[in-house]
Amino acid sequence: MKKKIFSTMMIAALLMFPLFITAQTKDPGDPPGGGGDPGGDPIGGGAPIGSGLVILLTMGAAYGGKKLYTLYTEDKESLEE
Description:
Blueprint: H1 2-20, H2 50-80
């Protein structure tokens, strides 16, 4: 019983953790002396994330499908016995 309560509390804490953390910082502003490129890329370089997201989603779907297939075949074997 204590283990179930502890695991429930840990899951709740992990789910609520992002609500209390702020990862954004303030803009540091312009550097002194007017140096730097005023027309440069924004922070992060403007890298595209679309194709990487598609790759990760595809890999996750394939992994989940493999897990379901393995579970299905193990369940089918246990029913035949």
